[in-house]
Specification:
Elements (H helix, E strand, L loop, with lengths): L5 E2 L3 E4 L6 H8 L2 H4 L9 H18 L3 E6 L5 E8 L14 E6 L8 H15 L4 E6 L4 H9 L3 E8 L2 E9 L10
Antiparallel strand pairs: 1-2, 2-3, 3-4, 4-5, 6-8, 7-8
Pfam families: Acetyltransf_3 (PF13302)
InterPro entries: Acyl_CoA_acyltransferase, GNAT_dom, N-acetyltransferase
Protein name: GNAT family N-acetyltransferase
Length: about 180
């Protein structure tokens, strides 16, 4: 599937592109970005694998991540989207699409996260994806607040890679119980 392009007042969400590797390698090497997402810098190689995973999600499961661009400048602001991550979390949420977001540090505090997540969830809702989850580091108060604004409710204290994490879930509005994906 070709990722749809989503447009908001200030952002464009577009499919992942291998040409964006330098921007994402810089983002994932920034301590202000990775501090709450993995706790360590990602190498260029690991970031390349992430870009390939983002591209592959669209091809294999029909949803995935978008690259977030600021419309005014064209500058990459981060990524947002859905994943079939099959994480080894306790409790498990396998089979439920996982929403994730990460912003370049220059984009923090500007409302881009909420704008991008709302656009991605609007697309997911329109596709009939009845329920999504997200996991967030307990210290990441900004993402916990954003998740709450987007309708996510904390459903469990979880463990991922031997570290505590919080599991949140969101039901799509006006989705009948039979419409699930």
């Amino acid at each position: 599937m070709t990722p749809p392009v989503l447009t908001t007042a200030r952002l464009t969400l577009e499919g992942p592109d291998p040409a964006d590797l330098p921007d994402f390698a810089a983002m994932w090497a920034d301590p202000l970005v990775y501090a709450m997402i993995g706790g360590r810098a990602f190498t260029r190689e690991e970031t390349w694998h992430r870009v390939l995973r983002h591209i592959g999600h669209w091809q294999v499961v029909g949803y995935g991540n978008w690259t977030i661009r600021e419309r005014a400048s064209g500058r990459i602001a981060g990524s947002v989207g859905l994943m079939d991550s099959r994480r080894d979390t306790v409790p498990s949420f396998e089979g439920t699409p996982e929403m994730g977001w990460a912003l370049c540090s220059w984009a923090h505090g500007r409302g881009f996260g909420g704008e991008a997540v709302a656009a991605a969830l609007g697309w997911a809702d329109a596709q009939g994806i009845a329920r999504t989850v997200c996991i967030i580091d307990p210290a990441n108060t900004a993402s916990i607040g954003l998740a709450g604004k987007m309708g996510y409710v904390r459903v469990a204290d979880a463990t991922y890679r031997d570290a505590p994490t919080l599991l949140f879930a969101r039901a799509a509005p006006d989705v009948s119980p039979s419409a699930s994906r």
